Amino acid sequence: MTDPSSNDVHLIAADSAEQTITDSIDDTPLNQRSELLRGVTTALPMTLGFIPFALVLGAQAVQQGFTVLQVPLMTGVNFAGGSEFTAISLWTSPPHLLLIVAMTFLVNSRHIIMGAALVPFMRHLSKKQSLPLLFFMCDEAWAMGITDCQKRNTMRLSVPFYLGVAACLYSSWVIFTGIGAAVGPLIGDVEQYGFDMAFTAVFLVLLKGMWRGVSRCWPWLVSLVVAGVLYHLLPGAWYVAGGTLAGIIAALIWGKH
Amino acid sequence: MTFDQPLMASIEQLFTQHMAVLTIIAMGLTTYLTRIIGYLALRKRRLNPRVERVMEVVPGCVLIAVIAPVIFSGRFSDMLAVAITLLATLRLSLLPTVIIAIVSTGLLRYWLG
């Protein structure tokens, strides 16, 4: 593990001296192009998994009143699937901006922890280099970046590897959500055939990925029940905010025990 | 004073589209903020582990609240389809799960209404 203060000294010190020290920590000096390529090939199977999500998202978005161009705009600017599915389910025309921003923040609040966990692997990068890289920090890019560092037994994130992973995931997400939006209307009313359940299925798969056992995820049950009750009592989409808050409050109050 | 109906409709349309784009950009900024907050904060200090544990659970709370109306819809065919989908989730990957969800929902609605 590199000490951050000594790392700063290395940056100022002679390049050759720094090179020998870091070489003893990293296994090999990294070739930019092969690292980029390694990122792309590592991310390819994951990219295939993205495609059905993306197509469903695009088709659902258009059903809810998005124009075809607004779909890749959203997925390109936002690039976080969970919050995009949530926004679509809450979408009205015109959309309720504050509600959607609040839910986007809540769904993506896990990024705060992920970004914090990435800090030790980015000590060799300046703030100016790190901030653009963080734009692409989705669950998969984050996990692959850290796993790769652990495999190579280093605390230095390979930037071209990470960019290769990010390029693969980002481009496939934007392109296939766009395709979903364009071809979705050809299928017709998705509700009629049960296509709307695809949305629930995707969420259940996402939840399965986040599952950490009853002892940690029991507040989900609070959210589920409260949201279910509020849905039948209140108009509009407030059951989402109400159910979410109930789960958070429950976790805050009883979280210690 | 009377208003031109098509004009009013097109103004409303314009407003809706502007709000849509504005909402999308606000979403993007919000998400980027969540991606950099942790990095910016932890360059100096670390998060309270209790807050960290609560935050871990938040995304799941949101997602499950979103699908709660489907789970508690009261429509027998849909609730049965959710149960089948949940079983599929436990055993299968995304694509087969989605296909089973769609097919079972479509068939159950056809048979049971």
Automatic annotation (TrEMBL), chain A:
It is found in: Cell membrane. Keywords: Cell membrane, Membrane, Transmembrane, Transmembrane helix, Transport. The chain crosses the membrane at residues 36-59, 71-91, 97-121, 161-187, 193-210, 217-233, 239-255. The keyword Transport applies. The keyword Transmembrane applies. Its main location: membrane. It is a multi-pass membrane protein. Pfam families: AzlC. InterPro entries: Brnchd-chn_aa_trnsp_permease (IPR011606). Belongs to the AzlC family. This is AzlC family ABC transporter permease. It comes from Shewanella electrica.
UniProtKB/TrEMBL annotation, chain B:
It holds the Pfam family AzlD. The chain crosses the membrane at residues 20-42, 54-72, 92-112. InterPro entries: Brnchd-chn_aa_trnsp_AzlD. Keywords: Membrane, Transmembrane, Transmembrane helix. This is AzlD family protein. It comes from Shewanella electrica.
